[in-house]
Amino acid sequence: MKNISEQKNAVPNSADFNTNGLRQCIGGISKKIFSSIPAVAMISAFTIGGLLISCQDKNNQSNQNNKTEVMKNNQEQKEGILKAIDLYVESGKKGDGNIAKPAFASTATMSWSENGVLKSVPIQVLFDGFSAAEPMEANYKLTTLDVEGDAAIVRIESQFGPDKYADMFTLVKDGSDWKIISKVYQVKK
Question: Which UniProt keyword terms apply here (predicted)?
């Protein structure tokens, strides 16, 4: 163990502090450190460091591959989900409830609040309403799409003719298709 006076000599005082002094100081400290470490320990340290860097590079490459796969899967999921939403809007546009049927689970429901009272009906009511209506201009804007595994939540701003809606859908994956199991809407004023 060095005594205090030896430690003070290892660092230049402010009067000596210039570029050459700094180099000499660092060089002297480096020589003391490396001369006190056996060569085998230094080689081991460099080898382990190299292996860690190599492993990190492989992990980064693996993570990049995983991110690419997730992005690909997410895009496929999004396309499948939006296919169901597109069928719903197309059904209203053409005035044909049968177009929407493949997008919905047979047990799906449609819910809304009317004068502060919850209303909930089987989805067949929506199909019948579309079929009873004349074809009309219809479109939507996606505002939310959240997917977790085989479940998804979608929110759209839609317009059927002059009427505007906020539509919320819950979807579940059924085989390779996404099925809407719940439609909740709010008429926008």
Answer: Membrane, Transmembrane, Transmembrane helix
Residue 72 lies inside a defined structural domain of this protein: no
In a domain, 44, yes or no: yes
In sign, the C-alpha dihedral spanning 25, 30, 33, 35 is negative
Cβ atoms 77, 65 nearer than 8 A = no
Say if residues 145 and 154 touch (Cβ distance below 8 Å).
yes
Contact 103, 90 (CB under 8 A): no
Query: Nearest CA to 45 among 55, 56, 34, 60?
Result: 34
CA distances from 19 to 8, 24, 133, 134, 170 (A): 19, 9, 86, 86, 68
* Residue 149 to residue 174: CA distance in whole angstroms: 12
Q: Is the pTM of this model over 0.70?
A: no
Cα–Cα distance list, 110 to 5, 105, 106, 107, 181 (Å): 84, 12, 12, 10, 9
Beta strands 104-114 and 151-160 are: unpaired
Structural domain boundaries enclosing 61: 4-65
